[in-house]
Amino acid sequence: MAEPATATQAAAPAVPQLKDELDIVIPTIRNLDFLEMWRPFFQPYHLIIVQDGDPSKTIKVPDGFGYELYNRNDINRILGPKASCISFKDSACRCFGYMVSKKKYIFTIDDDCFVAKDPSGKAINALEQHIKNLLSPSTPFFFNTLYDPFRDGADFVRGYPFSLREGVPTAVSHGLWLNIPDYDAPTQLVKPLERNTRFVDAVLTIPKGTLFPMCGMNLAFDRELIGPAMYFGLMGDGQPIGRYDDMWAGWCTKVICDHLALGVKTGLPYIYHSKASNPFVNLRKEYKGIFWQEEIIPFFQQIVLPKDCTTVQKCYIELAKQVKEKLSKVDPYFDKLAEAMVTWIEAWDELNPTGSSVTNGKAK
């Protein structure tokens, strides 16, 4: 079985890439002791911690990390009435961190994700691999059978059109997991002991027109290219659904990336997912989503965005309009979600006016 690396096995790169251009966003309800394992890789970077649940609880962060910590009181203070678009008692609260960041890139990770080891036993610097993915082009319009042609030791194969070899900017880097797979509750229940020990040394671009199940526990993206689409929806407290927050963001993001000619990569890097959530609790959260997704996914598959949707914000507002028109018949929840999508964009634009470098919240 795959084992997590120890802090002593992890060696930081000599010069951290994008040190001043990347924020690490972490949603949590507990002390962040897991950062000790990640210290060699994360310490040079700025953290944005979004505390879920009881705002009176004190979250302890190991010494030596630079961070901002936001709780529900901060979210309400900063967004005012628009705070209603940020989920409560759900890891979807992390998207508030995306909104208040002023950096070009975001890496987000869950607090039960540890440093994984590659087959040689070397600790995997997940952040470094995400940066490699984001800084190299994607190839969504024609599949390369050697996967990512921009990796060392790979290239475009015979028959790949030369007109497409320049690729397009990569907006999203989607990483994977060793140990506990990202399964839904029914699969958890029938495979309670299954663990992923298979390390696949590959990165590929998800083709245009193909949706994918995006997991938020090991994810990086170019905030300037796609940030406003990374809304994790209305989930958790007061909502009829949970555990579809990253799925929703992934479907919306992929449709917009396809429209704007941006790329999404998946594969490396791996993290070690240490803790399986309770499948019975998960089933209660996912129950409606399991049924709804059979209509939600065909909805996203048939979406065509108008040519005048030339920005992420315009695309997202159009998506919200179509969600209200076509998914409200599934459940009234989608009317509420569509309204929250519009509120999210309004809040994003308020906190991110052109040329702004203002940061709100508690800095340390």
UniProtKB/TrEMBL annotation:
Superkingdom of this protein's organism: Eukaryota
Query: What EC number(s) has UniProt assigned to this enzyme?
Result: 5.4.99.30
Q: Name one GO cellular component term.
A: cytosol
Which residues does this entry assign to the site Required for activity?
158, 165
Q: What class of enzyme is it?
A: isomerase
Residues with glycosylation annotation: 158
This protein's record includes keyword Cell wall biogenesis/degradation: yes
Q: Which residues form a coiled coil?
A: none
Please indicate if the UniProt record lists Disulfide bond as a keyword: no
**Reaction catalyzed:** UDP-beta-L-arabinofuranose = UDP-beta-L-arabinopyranose
Listed GO molecular functions? Answer: UDP-arabinopyranose mutase activity
Q: What is its main location?
A: Golgi
| BP term (GO), one | plant-type cell wall organization or biogenesis
Give compartment(s).
Golgi apparatus
Instruction: Identify the keywords attached in UniProt to this record, alphabetized.
Output: Cell wall biogenesis/degradation, Glycoprotein, Golgi apparatus, Isomerase
What does this protein's UniProt record list under function? Answer: Probable UDP-L-arabinose mutase involved in the biosynthesis of cell wall non-cellulosic polysaccharides.
Which family does the record claim for this protein?
Answer: Belongs to the RGP family.
For this entry, the protein name equals UDP-arabinopyranose mutase
**Species of the source:** Gossypium tomentosum
